[in-house]
Amino acid sequence: MVASVGFIPNPQAVLLLAACRTPKPDRLPGGRETRQAGRVFLVGSGPGNPELLTLRAARVMQQADVVLYDHLVAPEIVEMVRDGAQRIYVGKERSNHALPQEEINHLMVALALQGKCVLRLKGGDPFIFGRGAEEIETLARYGIPFEVVPGVTAATGVAAYAGIPLTHRDYAQACVFVTGHLKDGTMNLDWEALARPNQTVVVYMGLLGLPLLCQQLIKHGSPATTPAAAVQQGTTNKQRVVTGTLETLPLATFKAGIKPPTLIIVGEVVKLREQLAWFEPRADWETAAIESLIDPVRA
Ligand SMILES: C[S@@+](CC[C@H](N)C(=O)[O-])C[C@H]1O[C@@H](n2cnc3c(N)ncnc32)[C@H](O)[C@@H]1O
């Protein structure tokens, strides 16, 4: 059954799932060819600023019967989904999952088999540390039609709003995205490769393990003076940026009380922020602008 240790179930999602148990792919009523399946849109909602949604995302948000959305999807974006669409929160924060991944996969299948147009709304891009592949693998197994709508991933969106170009002819000819998620208190990364010069390393989910990350990079050859930044809630009106070096950043972020979601950027490009920072977080979202963005796609 759904309720087990390790997550706090969202009662609405659990009830829905229980009500529409997914049959095995080979036991679908009417067989694969004849049944009337709905459709699933796996959509990246970008790093939080509604202005960074793609036009395709805004359009399919107006077609959905039901939306399953994640923790990192901004409330302003959930608000933009078609009035009347059912809204289901499915998680997931670190160690607090509204619904485990497998149950989310099956809920999508079950809803699509009821003929619904399902919007699976995820933070950033669904294929970058988003488990999007697992979700559509399940859909593919059940023969459910789906479309993937890419989103602006945190690395590109957050870096742009922090005034940090990820590549630069003089400083970084490569850029690597890694997950800093701690497993059993450690990070299983190719430290030699990450410590190479002339590249930028972008770390998703790296805040908790930041001291370990900096320590390992230094141990494997990065100068302790390598510039590094932590960007909290980048692109949004709550954006906060702390800069330092591999040596100083862990303490600086701790002192500043930086919280997730935070992206870590390591490399010489970070120092360009001194000249290139352009974004001033503002408390008032330009809601009128957002409305004017969504109106043309409502038709
Ligand atoms: C599970 S990953 C999902 C990434 C997402 N699929 C993407 O493409 O951006 C979540 C991590 O992305 C990063 N992240 C996402 N949005 C962010 C934001 N607005 N500001 C800073 N970091 C962000 C954080 O490191 C966070 O822990």
Give structural notes:
The chain has helices spanning 11-19, 31-34, 55-60, 75-79, 101-113, 132-141, 154-162, 191-194, 210-219, 249-256, 273-276, 287-298; strands at 39-44, 66-69, 86-89, 117-122, 146-149, 174-179, 199-204, 227-232, 240-245, 262-266. With 299 residues, the chain is an alpha/beta fold. The chain has 2 domains: 11-152, Cobalt-precorrin-4 Transmethylase, domain 1 (3-Layer(aba) Sandwich); 155-273, Tetrapyrrole methylase, C-terminal domain (Methyltransferase, Cobalt-precorrin-4 Transmethylase, Domain 2, 2-Layer Sandwich), CATH 3.30.950. The strands form 2 sheets. Strands 3-2-4-1-5 form a 5-stranded parallel β-sheet. A 5-stranded mixed β-sheet has the order 6-7-10-8-9, sandwiched between helices. A hairpin with a 7-residue loop joins β8 and β9. The longest helix is centred in the middle third of the chain and has 13 residues, at 101-113. The radius of gyration is 21 Å and the shape is elongated. Residues 1-8 and 29-35 have low confidence and may be disordered. S-adenosylmethionine is lined by residues 47-48, 72, 123-125, 128-130, 153-154, 158, 204-205, 231, 233-235, 260-263. S-adenosylmethionine binds next to α7 and β10.
